[in-house]
Design brief:
The chain is an alpha+beta fold. The chain has helices spanning 35-50, 71-82, 87-96, 103-113, 120-125, 130-142, 164-176, and strands at residues 16-18, 24-30, 55-61, 150-153, 156-158. The longest helix has 16 residues, at 35-50.
């Protein structure tokens, strides 16, 4: 008798880029169809380069499904790609192709970034990662988030306009702060 071993799913809160030991954690809640989420993406890439080794970044999913019908599946596709260590590659391609996030396109993007899972499309169609997207949404709601992009720096909500200058100032302040990182991202 063959026993099926359930594989461990890597949740979005564990998909972090940057120095794992960094003192500053930036968490962004975003939506792959949101123009504002796409705009801040370039800023986040600049910050990761400027503060290399000093910050870590975690993207969490908050698809605004009432206005963006394809954002939820796109989030699932990113999580699926993350299971093969390709979350950030998929994240980048989704933000660069916001207007083309249909299921067949998502499968093509997965192939383009190197996802090899033969069951990728089945997992997407069966919402294998849907609960992980919902978990991100629920955590965002609990944090009082209602729109995207929403940023938290070391657990504190960043309320200023998310410009390179404003975020740099907040990061510099957090680097000087004695405040410890929150236990939960």
């Amino acid at each position: 008798m063959k026993v099926k071993v359930e594989e461990r799913v890597i949740p979005p809160k564990e998909m972090i880029v940057g120095n794992p030991e960094a003192k500053v954690l930036i968490v962004e809640y975003g939506d792959y169809e949101s123009a504002d989420t796409a705009k801040i993406h370039g800023i986040m890439l600049q910050l990761l380069e400027t503060y290399k080794g000093k910050i870590k970044y975690n993207f969490r999913h908050f698809p605004l499904t009432r206005i963006h019908q394809r954002s939820f599946k796109a989030a699932e596709a990113a999580i699926a790609a993350g299971q093969e260590g390709k979350f950030w590659e998929m994240h980048n391609i989704l933000l660069n192709h916001q207007r083309n996030l249909g299921t067949i396109s998502l499968k093509g993007y997965a192939r383009d970034v190197g996802v090899t899972a033969k069951h990728f499309l089945d997992d997407l169609m069966n919402s294998k990662y849907g609960w992980y997207v919902r978990d991100d949404q629920m955590q965002a709601v609990e944090a009082g988030i209602t729109e995207v992009p929403a940023l938290l720096i070391n657990g504190d909500r960043f309320m200023a306009k998310p410009t390179l200058q404003n975020l740099s100032e907040a990061i510099n302040h957090a680097l000087k702060s004695k405040k410890k990182l929150p236990q939960r991202a």
